[in-house]
Amino acid sequence: MTAVAEIMDYDEVLRRFDPVLGLEVHVELSTATKMFCGCANEFGAEPNTRVCPVCLGMPGALPVVNGSAVESAIRIGLALDCQVAEWCRFARKNYFYPDMPKNFQTSQYDEPIVFDGGLDVVLDDGETFRVGIERAHMEEDTGKSSHVGGASGRIHGAEHSLLDYNRAGVPLIEIVTKPITGAGERAPEIARAYVTALRDLLRSMGVSDVRMDQGSLRCDANVSLTPKGESGFGTRTETKNVNSFRSIERAVRFEMRRQASLLENGSEIVQETRHFDESTGETSSGRRKEEAEDYRYFPEPDLVPIAPSREWVEQLRGTLPEMPWERRRRVQEQWGLSDEELRDLVNASALDLVAATVDAGASPSEARSWWVAYLSQRANERGVELAELSVTPAQVARVIELVGEGKLTHKLARQVIDGVLEDRGEPDEVIAADGIEVVSDDSSLQAAVDEALAAQPDAAEKIRGGKVQAAGAIVGAVMKATQGQADAKRVRELVLAACGQQ
Amino acid sequence: MSTISRDEVAHLAGLARLAVSEDELDTFAGQLDVILDSVARVGEVAADEIPPTSHAVPVTNVFRTDEVRDGLSRGEALAGAPATEENRFRVPRILNEEA
Ligand SMILES: [Zn+2]
């Protein structure tokens, strides 16, 4: 464990080194069945109830490729601007570890199904950075092991391990970037933004659940440093177990600082896998990286090659939905957003929610204001994602509708939304339960207006003289007097009428 | 022509989790040499225009429709396990690796 005091300051790291990143993202496809057998591809089932001779690696069992998984792989490749192989094979990756009962993982080696593409990643300030895609290949997930006897279920000190093979054989796509250079201080941010963009893309395509918390989207971050002014890449480490977007950013940042500290001390970087600890924000040494040839890859004899015809590829290209970046451009145009407004919307992860609220009948500007401002703040306070708040776009649209009809003021609307967030039912139920009502009785409002005008004779005089902007002060006083329960629009009308301006 | 060393045999044995004695290293190095030499003779007849072949039949694109089929019951699945615990396969602890 490296003490914090020994670790180099981030700015100092950047003065001396250029970071190089490589990101490997594993995506579990949401097909009905596994990659090579008809077992259900299902998260959370009872242990060892989604298994068969193929995924348990029993002698004589033969795999057959899931056609839907191949289609998804090609579609993902097309969405990532990749070439689709004319011909490619599966390969056996041999290793001995009980999470693969076959003693090998069926993967692809030097013939990935798609290769050479890129993804434009929008950063927090709205700038775009293109991340090159080296390849994406098909493989199968491993079983899940738990370790018994050691502390906290980790392997150190464990007495034995228990295996559940429900996940063994689940279709997996591994997407590998080209080395990401020239990122400088933004390397950690780019790593996070890339995985986020990939998540959004895959979700819009409906090919995966892309749940980092459930492991259907997993990221390994390769980091190395090149001393300023030198060329070539330094020795890299691969940090695994990074399972949130924020963790990706933190892990890359920590590795840059740790490696820089070692290099400054004249120490060498060990090529190894490292583990990220969410609680400390640090990485720790895992295992030394096995060289590729140690897996003794060879073409899988039990599966025939895949040769996607160009007709098939073009047909699949036709099934691609609107891409997230196309959608952003369309929404910006339709809703008349500035670049900054669009950026805020995207950064708040509010685009889908706002769109759904608009679909439910709200105006884009009202919907945007609720989600990006008020509800984002509520989500922050609760430490949850915006989408995890217990309020639906339809409920927000209903509240906006009530405001539009003058039945709620903005202040009351917030009370209603808070009630919904507290799981107290639909907006109308909260309104009924709390007796929330806009003061719309003109006679009581009129009294409040008269009172306010009498209290501010100067303002009243100005309005009578035609300076209608002075009405704001009177409206404010009335709103205050009615504790925000009055309809400001109606109050204004009454004020102007009382002063002979309407 | 010896192409494979004792060290390489030991390395491969390690990767394959095979216990190989010192005597056996020499035996297997010699035997593997014979095998490699035999395979190398294939290279003598393979001309440039013949691509490396991994599959004997000229068949591609064999796919299965994405429909769930019944597999094994949990009892059947665990029947062959050397040991079980909590409906899972129980194996000796795994050394030197994190899962
Ligand atoms: Zn199966």
Automatic annotation (TrEMBL), chain A:
Domain of life: Bacteria
Physiological role: Allows the formation of correctly charged Asn-tRNA(Asn) or Gln-tRNA(Gln) through the transamidation of misacylated Asp-tRNA(Asn) or Glu-tRNA(Gln) in organisms which lack either or both of asparaginyl-tRNA or glutaminyl-tRNA synthetases. The reaction takes place in the presence of glutamine and ATP through an activated phospho-Asp-tRNA(Asn) or phospho-Glu-tRNA(Gln).
Subunit structure: Heterotrimer of A, B and C subunits.
GO MF term list: asparaginyl-tRNA synthase (glutamine-hydrolyzing) activity; ATP binding; glutaminyl-tRNA synthase (glutamine-hydrolyzing) activity; transferase activity
Name of encoding gene: gatB
HAMAP family (UniProt xref): GatB (MF_00121)
Entry protein name: Aspartyl/glutamyl-tRNA(Asn/Gln) amidotransferase subunit B
Enzyme Commission identifier(s): 6.3.5.-
InterPro entries per UniProt: Asn/Gln-tRNA_amidoTrfase_suB/E, Asn/Gln-tRNA_Trfase_suB/E_cat, Asn/Gln_amidotransferase, Asn/Gln_tRNA_amidoTrase-B-like, GatB, GatB_Yqey_C_2, Gln-tRNA_amidoTrfase_suB_CS, Gln_synth/guanido_kin_cat_dom
Major enzyme class: ligase
Keywords: ATP-binding, Ligase, Nucleotide-binding, Protein biosynthesis, Transferase
UniProtKB/TrEMBL annotation, chain B:
Catalytic activity, EC: 6.3.5.-
HAMAP family: GatC
Keywords: ATP-binding, Ligase, Nucleotide-binding, Protein biosynthesis, Transferase
Subunit structure: Heterotrimer of A, B and C subunits.
Protein name in UniProt: Aspartyl/glutamyl-tRNA(Asn/Gln) amidotransferase subunit C
Family under the similarity heading: Belongs to the GatC family.
Catalytic activity of the protein: L-glutamyl-tRNA(Gln) + L-glutamine + ATP + H2O = L-glutaminyl-tRNA(Gln) + L-glutamate + ADP + phosphate + H(+); L-aspartyl-tRNA(Asn) + L-glutamine + ATP + H2O = L-asparaginyl-tRNA(Asn) + L-glutamate + ADP + phosphate + 2 H(+)
Organism of provenance: Actinopolyspora alba
Function as written in the Swiss-Prot or TrEMBL entry: Allows the formation of correctly charged Asn-tRNA(Asn) or Gln-tRNA(Gln) through the transamidation of misacylated Asp-tRNA(Asn) or Glu-tRNA(Gln) in organisms which lack either or both of asparaginyl-tRNA or glutaminyl-tRNA synthetases. The reaction takes place in the presence of glutamine and ATP through an activated phospho-Asp-tRNA(Asn) or phospho-Glu-tRNA(Gln).
GO MF terms held by the record: asparaginyl-tRNA synthase (glutamine-hydrolyzing) activity; ATP binding; glutaminyl-tRNA synthase (glutamine-hydrolyzing) activity; transferase activity
Keyword Cytoplasm recorded: no
Organismal lineage: Bacteria, Bacillati, Actinomycetota, Actinomycetes, Actinopolysporales
Alphabetical GO biological process terms: glutaminyl-tRNAGln biosynthesis via transamidation; regulation of translational fidelity; translation
Domain of life: Bacteria
